Amino acid sequence: MSETLLNRLLRSKSTDKQNADKNSLLIIWVTVIAAIFLAVYISINYYFPIYPDQMIRYIGLGIILLGIVLRIAAVLSLGKFFTVDVTIREDHKLKKDGVYKYLRHPSYFASLLSFIGFGLSINSWPGLILIVIAVMAVFIFRIKIEEKILIGQFGDEYLDYKKNTKGIIPFIY
Predict the structure, then answer these.
(1) pTM higher than 0.70 for the full model?
(2) Using one digit for the tens of pLDDT, what is the confidence trace for 120-137?
(3) Coil, strand, or helix at residue 50?
(4) Are 166 and 104 in contact (CB under 8 A)?
């Protein structure tokens, strides 16, 4: 629901640079929906549990909620420069403080965290692996599009920022 709300409220405006998205938002939605259905199907029809106790489902739910809260925080931190489609806003400034000091794409990290929670909540190793690989693949695809636009807009400032911060996974990538 939170993603649907963001999708409706935080799209680019006609005054923003247009046609930068390359349909990546649609690709994300299709991939995520397909991966969710497939992960649930696998978890129902093939039993490879992560943990034999039902507690794992509650832990997964907690991680989903943590991811949602962190995503909302990242969106609010970016403020008027956040859109669900790739664009550069009028008077766009490069955000390098707050959580953006540590990660270039904290909202993707938060979403990934929610999907990890989802994989745990269905208590399925194959489902967890499928959802994480699918989501990471489309996020990396989208990040490449975003970073090309950001380099075009901010040049060396973004390249320097990129050298000093991780992309989506703290301390790793």
Answers:
(1) yes
(2) 999 999 999 999 999 999
(3) coil
(4) yes
